[in-house]
Write a structure and sequence with these properties.
Strand content: 35-45%
Radius of gyration: 21 Å
Structural class: alpha+beta
Distance between the termini: 72 Å
CATH topology of the largest domain: Double Stranded RNA Binding Domain
Largest sheet: 7 strands, mixed
Number of strands: 16
Number of helices: 3
Number of domains: 2
CATH class of the largest domain: Alpha Beta
Helix content: 10-25%
CATH architecture of the largest domain: 2-Layer Sandwich
């Protein structure tokens, strides 16, 4: 009887681990922390309420993707402090009456993570001494197309969720990145244009970018010296005939086309877990 009663419990446990909202197995918080205080971000822009929306997204991301629990400042092992530095909107395609057909929104945030004693645990190493002493900058980016019923408000929410993921990633000591597994073209992870940070190259990495009609694509690989290389492929993993690659294979672009298409972006290296970044931009017709 005991074995029979344990089976449903085991099934429920496996189901819970598979559902959204359960954190990635193997995620370890920095400095052995168990709790974090996410303070309301400052707002250094003219856009109202963006700081509260970002704070909400970061707190939710903590609960859904890490084993950390939220606590008040003074009772938490980690404290996240930051500010929304800039919010920008860029028109990519305008209609005959100068109406906005396709546009992009970007949100730039500066932040750092501190311990109970106020010491900075996660940040930028400005003076190069191996210890964080400055804030990190992360940027969320999203586009919207009026014809698809998308608005700048929905794009803003997407950009805020994107930057929230980047912030919360800095609270963990994972050896991989938030997009794993993506070692094969069939496992390519869809990313939105913008700067993809906190990436690590253990195996070939594949990403999927949807390019709207009338727009091109520009991809730049930012990585340490070494065998890092960038490739652009079609959905069949075949080379794109109109892709133009830099001689060092660290940048590539695809010209605008009349129809929507999907571009696969591949990154290879020496599989030693070195960090790198991707800058992905949509480019209008020149």
């Amino acid at each position: 009887m005991r074995r029979r009663s344990d089976r449903p419990r085991l099934g429920l446990l496996l189901l819970a681990l598979a559902l959204p909202g359960c954190y990635h197995l193997g995620v370890e918080p920095v400095d052995g922390a168990t709790s974090v205080a996410v303070l309301v971000f400052q707002n250094r822009t003219l856009r109202r309420e963006v700081e509260h929306a970002l704070t909400r997204h970061v707190r939710r991301e903590v609960l859904e993707t890490t084993p950390l629990h939220l606590a008040a400042e003074g009772a938490a092992d980690l404290v996240v402090r930051g500010a929304v530095q800039d919010v920008r909107e860029q028109v990519l395609i305008a209609g005959p009456a100068q109406e906005v057909v396709h546009a992009a929104v970007s949100v730039s945030v500066r932040f750092a993570v501190f311990g109970r004693d106020g010491q900075m645990l996660v940040g930028d190493d400005v003076d190069g001494d191996g210890r964080p002493d400055g804030e990190l900058t992360r940027q969320g980016y999203a586009e919207f197309t009026a014809a698809r019923g998308q608005t700048r408000e929905t794009a803003m929410e997407e950009a805020l969720r994107d930057v929230a993921e980047m912030i919360v990633h800095e609270l963990t000591a994972r050896r991989d990145d938030r997009h794993e597994p993506n070692d094969d073209p069939s496992e390519a992870v869809t990313i939105t244009p913008g700067r993809q940070v906190a990436l690590r190259q253990w195996n070939p990495d594949w990403f999927r970018v949807v390019v709207p009609p009338g727009l091109g694509l520009s991809v730049t690989l930012m990585a340490p010296e070494g065998p890092f290389q960038l490739t652009l492929r079609s959905t069949s993993a075949a080379p794109l005939p109109d892709a133009v690659m830099a001689t060092d294979a660290r940048a590539g672009r695809v010209p605008p086309g009349p129809a929507e298409r999907v571009v696969l972006v591949g990154v290879t290296g020496d599989d030693r877990g070195r960090p790198y970044q991707l800058l992905v931009r949509l480019t209008p017709i020149e």
